[in-house]
Each structure stands twice: as C-alpha cells, then as structure tokens.
Amino acid sequence: MEHKVLPHDHGHNQEEIMKNMPGEEEIAGVSEAMKQLGDPSRLRIFWLLCHCEECVFNIAAIVNMTSPAVSHHLRLLKSSGLIVSRREGKEMYYRTADTELAQVLHHTIEKLGQITCPEQHG
Q1: What pLDDT score was predicted for residue 118?
Q2: Of 79, 80, 95, 101, which sits most exposed with the smallest number of CB within 10 A?
Q3: What is the pLDDT of residue 8?
Q4: Could you give the CA distance from residue 45 to residue 94 in angstroms, rounded to a whole number?
Q5: Which is nearest to 17 in space by CA: 4, 30, 34?
Q6: The CATH number, out of the four listed (2.130.10.10, 1.10.3720.10, 3.90.550.10, 1.10.10.10), of the domain defined by the range 40-114
Q7: What is the 3-state secondary structure (H, E, C) of 19-84?
Q8: β-pairing, 83-88 with 54-55?
Q9: CB-based contact 77:56 (threshold 8 Å)
Q10: What whole-number distance in Å separates Cα of residue 45 and Cα of residue 57?
Q11: In 3-state terms, what secondary structure has residue 110?
C-alpha cells in the first residue's frame, strides 16, 4: 500500500490504521449481509432461523406474513450466505448458515436488542 499523507494529523497512528483497513472486496460480504438484515422482516426471520430449522409455511405463520413474501426474504438471506436450505420431499427447510459471520450477527442482534436466546432462558 502506498504511503498517504493525510491533510490533518489528529494524534493517532493513522499509518497503522490505514495499513490494516480492509479493502472494498474484503468487506463486501459483510456489507451485503448487513444490508439484508437492515429490513425488519428479514431480521426477524434470520433471528428465528438462528434458533430452529423451519419450512416457509411455518415461518410465514410465525412472522405473520404470506408465504410468497417470506420466500422473497429467504431468497435474499440465502443469496447473502446467511441461511442455508435443504429439501425433504416436497418441503424446503431453512436454517442459519454455520458460518462465523452468521453467528456473530446473531449474537450482535441479541446484544443490541437485549434479546435472550431461547437456549439461555431458564
């Protein structure tokens, strides 16, 4: 990385910060995941799938939405790598992806929303 001289010196180690700053391509996946979770419906669906594997019809009933609307949200969450699916007969089941990003986002949601995981509830 080429050395940059910034217009102002604010007293912190700017060179070290710039050296470790992720590039756009390195952070693109995190950005996409956070963009998908910016929608309250997708956020609720993601949180639900962090705790159980469910089919579209049950998810729709739980979040009080139509199945087509839930399917739309599931497609977006799946394309961002936050959830995965599996087929059993004619039924598709969805759950949170087993990735560090999905786990960190799950815990962040619960921390920021002051939500207790069902597994942690006595």
Answers
A1: 67
A2: 79
A3: 67
A4: 10
A5: 4
A6: 1.10.10.10
A7: HHCCCHHHHHHHHHHHHHCCCHHHHHHHHHHHHCCEEHHHHHHHHCCCHHHHHHHHHHHHHCCCEE
A8: unpaired
A9: no
A10: 12
A11: helix
Summarize pLDDT for 80-93 with one digit per residue, the tens.
Answer: 999 999 999 999 99
Q: Which strands make up the sheet holding 54-55, listed edge to edge? A: 54-55, 91-96, 83-88
The answer to whether the beta carbons of residues 92 and 86 sit under 8 Å apart is: yes
| Per-domain boundaries in the chain | 40-114
In this prediction, residues 2-10 reach a mean pLDDT of 69
- Tokens describing residue 109: 């949601």
Tallying the residues shown for the chain, one arrives at 122
